Amino acid sequence: MANPLSKGWKYLMQSFDSKIDENADPKVQVQQAIAEAKKRHQEISQHAANIIGNRNQLQMKLDRLVGSQQDLQNKARTALQAADNASAAGETEKAQQHNNTAEVIASQLVSVEQELEQTKTAYAAAEQAADEAQRQQKQSEAKLQEQLNEVSKLESQIDQAKMQEQTAKSMDSVNQYNADDSVPTLEGVREKIERRYANALGAQELAQDSMTGRIAEIEATGTDVAASNRLAEIRASMQSGAGRELEAGDAEANPTEGAAEEAHPRDPQAPDAQTGTQKGE
Fold this sequence. Notes:
87% of the residues lie in helices and 0% in strands. By secondary structure, it is mainly α. The chain folds into two domains: 21-163, Helix Hairpins; 191-259. Mean pLDDT is 76; it is low at 257-265 and 267-281.
């Protein structure tokens, strides 16, 4: 079972790292990444240099052992020749000394040749490792150069992103200046007026279609007809009054005709002399 304290600590550290990444300056992070890439390349280059140095050291040792081998071989040949010459001259003791010297040289030569074979094997491995180290170092150098070329592009993109963020922040600041809620806006006043006007039109439309409105319209129409009839009566009475005044004036002007009419009243059923119609018609 995992330790809760260790698990919680790892969670806090991961959360802390996430917060740092969110709030970190991208340009600083780019510089940190480039510095880390340079450091890594330096480490790879140093490691490759050490491997190549080891190969070079083995190469120098190999050359030295080859030289020792050749020197010992020459010394062994010289000792053998001296022993042969002493033996031929009958100098047995001297010949034995040269043979002993040749045996010592031979022992040294065997040791040198064994070390030479081991060195050759180590040198072959070191040479292969040096080739691999050189390949990795070149790859690291190419990668570092590519990253360095990307720095200017990334910094330009960072500047553009900051500009966009600044523009967005400015727009947000502008949007934060809202109108005062205590002061009516033109849109609100217009909406209120239009709503009241529309309600008034609706009420008028309902009033026109209601029964009370129709009855009032009928009553108004009847009143208008009665008024017209009453005006006609007044006009007729005025005309008849004017006719009577005219007849009275004529009677005063022709008293004989008036007297005659009084002496001989006209039969209302008799036909009129001018119109040929009866009086009552």
